[in-house]
Design goal:
Blueprint (H helix, E strand, L loop, with lengths): L1 H16 L10 H6 L19 E6 L15 H16 L6 E3 L5 E13 L8 E11 L3 E11 L7 H6 L3 E16 L3 H4 L6 E3 L4 H17 L1
Antiparallel strand pairs: 1-4, 2-3, 3-6, 4-5, 5-6, 6-7
Length: 219
């Protein structure tokens, strides 16, 4: 038991305090913490350009495990909160859309590829971003990332606007598919409403395209 405890302690010490460039081969941490990833997980220009949307979140005890490190699945929570906050900023309902006929449309995650780079710690303030968005006929692809701000960034709006003095903690490619609930007398008695994929609603698509265009002009 003591040997296992020593191994675990050494692992988390290296994870939190040892710089990535000091790790032999530079891929050890990535290979250890990776959930799923492919070569398209993140946009190549993620660090070079201003994100489409970014907001800060506090890390609370309920986000972490017993070691004070954010549980890996909670990175998805921060990514989703960021997407919802962006939708709200655009004046969109981030959860449910209703057609003129009363049909309920919403989004479900169909794919999530994450790469964990560094640990997120209890009581930190993290910056969660939408770096790039791709609109498809029936889905939306989000390229997102989580960053640790430099200590003096909180006191310097100019530096924060540059989005350069940060440390990448994780990044993800998340695909959300648009679906519509199929409420029928038969389905109501069949333990839940079935869903079918549909095209992204025109109003939502136009709003997102406008936001993407405006962001490109500002670059």
């Amino acid at each position: 038991m003591s040997n296992n405890l020593g191994i675990i302690t050494a692992y988390f010490y290296n994870l939190i305090y040892q710089p990535l460039h000091a790790i032999n081969g530079a891929n050890l941490l990535s290979n250890t913490m990776m959930t799923t990833m492919n070569k398209n997980t993140a946009a190549p220009s993620m660090h070079a350009s201003t994100p489409l949307f970014a907001t800060d979140y506090n890390v609370y005890i309920n986000h972490t495990d017993a070691g004070g490190i954010v549980y890996h699945a909670n990175h998805l929570v921060f990514f989703e909160n960021c997407r919802r906050d962006w939708f709200t900023k655009l004046g969109l309902n981030g959860y449910f859309l209703q057609t003129d006929d009363g049909e309920i449309q919403h989004f479900v995650v169909s794919q999530a590829d994450l790469q964990y780079k560094k640990a997120i710690l209890l009581d930190e303030v993290i910056n969660v971003r939408i770096d790039k968005v791709e609109l498809k006929p029936a889905s939306i692809i989000f390229y997102q990332s989580i960053h640790r701000l430099a200590p003096n960034d909180n006191d310097s709006p100019q530096k924060r606007n540059a989005f350069s003095n940060t440390s990448l903690l994780s990044r993800a490619k998340i695909v959300i598919a648009c679906v519509q609930n199929q409420i029928t007398p038969d389905s109501a008695s069949n333990h839940g409403a079935p869903m079918r994929p549909i095209r992204v609603p025109q109003k939502l698509s136009e709003t997102i395209n406008q936001a993407i265009t405006s962001h490109s002009i500002e670059q």
